[in-house]
Structures are given as structure tokens and as C-alpha cells.
Write a sequence for this structure.
């Protein structure tokens, strides 16, 4: 058996795919390593959603290929979304790559690592893949926090998006399978679970299940030792009263909605094949806040879409000012060659899109700063994440309103009682605020039952600022 290193790029859904591949390899007897120069086989699980993601994937592939020249690596395997979009080009133009696996071929990773396999792909078509509760999986996240993918693919036809081409049609995991995996994860130490999928609000519809996400949240929240449960992402016209009620009425469910709206101009949304408008979105936001006054709202937007006029953009600016989102991301339009919007007329200059992005971000910075000031002086429960990676004298933590990896954080610069340990839920008093982060003093009292942190082996490779690799802990 070989030493295998895996680089995982992209979103949490891709992270789960990487964890599944590691689990399959570990079960087969392979040894995982976090040192690229020790790996005999290197796997790069790629992202290909937009231009910058594609470039990062290509750069990472080429960087890992260098280890075949100067280190122990003898095989480079590329998996994921980039393969789904550019399989033929990779095989033709990147001789450094020894094998490719698409998003539906995760269960073939062991065969790809077989030293007797001298092909570059399986040559067999793959049925739509969906892992289940019995699929081996090794977490790459901290032991106290884990993702669960509850569905795969997407049936929406957004003109700018190529995800359906890479991930296929929407398909839900069985209800019982998701619940059992949640129970297993909590049994093994997870205290925060995040449900992920391209459109979680459609969960269960293909199985004939009505209000599937709401039912799933209520059921998983019954697990005794679970502390926080959240879900990412909502399609705006699928946020029902039943779902809002489930979030409002279930204490363990984070009062948090991530609803990617993409724009507020009716004309731009129509061109995006999404429909609706800023006025309708504001009504939805008002409904959610009326039902859950303490709710946290996050969205993502696209600027520079073909044909976006100055008036369209001003509508978006006004909408952002009125909506007062807690968290907001802004992307510049990426003109993907296989998307329906690729051939639309009136493309915007890159400089215009850049300036529009900066203006939205500047506005949101003011909104965020104002909102965070209101936290100062409050005593709040936080999930400790351990020592800050930026400095050894600060600890980091998160509020329920801060999703892992995408939102701001709480910087702990003072504490009473024992030193903060990753995975602990403690009370804290917020002492200061910034644009996106809070500063707090940690109290000795625990918000939830104290969980002893435990050492864990390492598995994934992650690319650092200067091409360095560092280890991520897993169970």
C-alpha cells in the first residue's frame, strides 16, 4: 500500500467528497500523509465553478506535479469538478496527470491508486453517485465540527451557473441515512453539524417528501449531545413558512439563513433565469425577521453580469442598504464558456465590475461594523476553535451567527478559568468590535457540556501562501 496525500479545493461539498475518498483509501489500507514530499500518490480534488477557481486548480495540479520530479510521488490523480468540465483537455494537455476521476467516480479512487492500473481513466460511464451513512469517511475538519452533504446536483437553470453540468441533476440522500450519519458524527465527538447541498431547500422533493429540510432539522436536533445545527444554502423562492418555523422553534438549529440572491434588479435576475426582484426579497427578509428577531442573514451577489446597467447596479446598492445583511459576499461575473449566459450581449469591462464590487463591499463594511457594535457588552455563548493561526497570543471562537469558514470570528484576548481548548462551548463577554470580527473575554463557565479535546492524526494536504503544505486534523 502507498502513502497518499490529498489536496482539497473549493466548497464544503467538495470537502465532503475529499473526506469520502480518504475514508475509502484508509479502509483499503493506504496511509494518509500531510507531507507532500512524502506522498507516493497525490490527489488534487478540484473546483471549477468560476475562472479564479479553475486557475487555482490548474496551479495546484502543476505545483503537485513537481513532486513527481523531486520527491517520492509517482502518481498524480486529479478529481472533481475540473475533470467533469475538461476531462479531455486534461488528458490531452497535462501529461503530468496520471489519472482522472469525475464527481461521480469517487468510489473508484482505490482502483485509481492501484500500482497495476496503468490507464489514465476508468473508461466506464459512472452512474450518479451519492454517498450514504455506511460509506467510509474521514473528517478533515476539527473533530468538534462536521459537514453532512444531504443532496447532490441541481435542477435550477441559472444562466451563469455550470454546476448542473458538473454535478448532475438534483438528488437527495435518504432521510434515515442523513439522520444516522448525524448520530454517528455526534457519537464520535462532533458538536456542530452543518448540512450542505447546492439547494438544501429542495431536499426530499425527489423522494416525495414534503418540507423535507424542515423535517430533517427537527429530527437531527433531537440528538442529545448535539449543540448547534445549521444548513447552507437556500434558494430564495423555496424558503417556506414551514422552514422558517422549524428554525424558529428548534433551539439547536442556528438562527441563520444563507440565501444567495445574486442580484436585486428584476431585469438582471430575469437574464440570470432566477426571476423575482429586490422588493420581493425585502418582503422575504421582513418575514424571516418577524418570525426570528435574532436571525442572522447571509447572501451572495454577482456584479458585472452582461447587460447590467448603471440603473440596475444602483438598484442593487439601494437593496443592500435596505436589507442590512449580517454577512455578504460579492463576486464579479465569470463568463464561463459552457454557461447559458456566455453568449449574452453587452458584456461589462472588467474594470467596471471591479469598481462595482468594491462599492458594494465598502457599503457592506459599514453595515457590518454598525451591526457588530451592538454586540459589545453582551454575554454570549461561543464555540472555541483553539489558538489563532495568525498569532499565538490570541484564541479564536465563533458565535452561533458565524458559520465555519465563511463569516467573521471572535478573537479571545483574555480569559478566566482554564485555557480555551478547541471544541469547548464557553460563555464570553464581547469587549470590542471591528469591521467583521469581535473581541471577547472568555468566562470559566461552560455553555454546553465540556468536551475534552483529543489529538487526531492528519490527512489532507492544504496549499499555503507560498506553496507550503500544512496538516488539517481529522478523526
Amino acid at each position: 500500500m502507498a502513502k497518499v496525500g490529498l489536496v482539497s479545493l473549493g466548497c464544503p461539498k467538495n470537502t465532503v467528497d475529499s473526506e469520502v475518498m480518504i475514508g475509502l483509501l484508509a479502509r483499503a489500507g493506504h496511509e494518509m500523509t500531510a507531507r507532500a514530499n512524502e506522498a507516493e500518490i497525490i490527489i488534487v480534488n478540484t473546483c471549477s465553478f468560476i475562472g479564479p477557481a479553475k486557475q487555482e486548480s490548474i496551479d495546484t495540479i502543476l505545483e503537485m506535479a513537481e513532486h513527481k520530479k523531486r520527491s517520492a510521488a509517482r502518481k498524480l490523480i486529479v478529481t472533481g469538478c475540473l475533470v467533469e468540465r475538461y476531462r479531455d483537455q486534461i488528458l490531452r494537455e497535462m501529461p503530468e496527470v496520471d489519472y482522472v476521476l469525475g464527481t461521480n467516480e469517487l468510489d473508484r479512487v482505490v482502483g485509481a491508486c492501484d500500482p497495476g492500473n496503468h490507464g489514465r481513466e476508468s473508461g466506464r460511464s459512472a452512474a450518479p453517485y451519492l454517498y450514504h451513512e455506511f460509506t467510509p469517511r474521514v473528517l478533515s475538519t476539527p473533530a468538534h465540527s462536521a459537514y453532512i452533504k444531504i443532496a447532490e446536483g441541481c435542477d435550477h437553470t441559472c444562466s451563469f451557473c455550470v454546476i448542473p453540468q458538473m454535478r448532475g441533476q438534483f438528488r437527495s440522500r435518504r432521510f434515515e441515512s442523513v439522520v444516522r450519519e448525524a448520530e454517528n458524527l455526534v457519537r464520535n465527538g462532533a458538536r456542530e453539524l452543518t448540512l450542505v447541498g447546492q439547494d438544501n431547500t429542495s431536499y426530499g422533493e425527489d423522494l416525495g417528501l414534503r418540507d423535507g429540510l424542515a423535517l430533517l432539522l427537527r429530527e437531527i436536533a433531537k440528538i442529545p449531545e448535539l449543540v448547534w445545527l445549521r444548513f447552507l444554502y437556500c434558494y430564495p423562492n423555496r424558503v417556506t413558512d414551514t422552514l422558517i418555523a422549524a428554525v424558529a422553534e428548534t433551539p439547536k438549529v442556528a438562527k441563520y439563513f444563507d440565501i444567495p440572491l445574486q442580484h436585486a434588479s428584476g431585469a438582471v435576475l430575469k437574464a440570470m433565469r432566477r426571476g423575482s426582484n429586490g422588493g420581493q426579497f425585502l418582503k422575504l427578509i421582513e418575514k424571516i425577521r418577524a418570525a426570528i428577531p435574532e436571525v442572522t442573514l447571509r447572501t451572495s451577489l454577482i456584479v458585472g453580469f452582461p447587460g447590467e446597467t448603471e440603473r440596475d447596479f444602483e438598484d442593487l446598492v439601494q437593496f443592500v442598504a435596505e436589507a442590512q445583511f449580517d454577512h455578504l459576499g460579492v463576486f464579479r461575473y465569470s463568463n464561463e464558456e459552457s454557461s447559458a449566459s456566455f453568449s449574452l450581449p453587452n458584456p461589462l469591462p472588467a474594470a467596471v465590475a471591479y469598481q462595482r464590487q468594491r462599492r458594494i463591499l465598502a457599503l457592506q463594511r459599514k453595515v457590518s461594523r454598525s451591526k457588530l457594535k451592538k454586540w459589545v457588552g453582551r454575554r454570549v455563548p461561543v464555540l472555541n476553535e483553539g489558538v489563532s493561526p495568525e498569532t499565538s497570543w490570541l484564541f479564536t471562537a465563533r458565535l452561533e451567527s458565524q458559520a465555519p469558514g465563511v463569516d467573521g470570528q471572535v478573537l479571545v484576548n483574555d480569559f478566566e478559568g482554564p485555557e480555551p481548548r478547541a471544541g469547548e462551548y464557553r460563555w464570553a463577554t464581547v469587549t470590542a468590535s471591528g469591521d467583521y470580527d469581535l473581541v471577547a473575554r472568555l468566562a470559566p463557565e461552560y455553555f454546553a457540556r465540556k468536551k475534552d479535546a483529543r489529538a487526531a492524526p492528519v490527512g489532507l494536504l492544504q496549499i499555503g501562501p507560498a506553496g507550503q503544505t500544512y496538516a488539517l486534523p481529522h478523526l
Q: What stands out?
A: The chain has three domains: 3-127+457-473, 145-371, 379-446. DSSP finds 13 helices and 20 strands in the chain. Residues 379-446 form a domain with the OB fold (Dihydrolipoamide Acetyltransferase, E2P) fold (CATH 2.40.50.140). The radius of gyration is 22 Å.
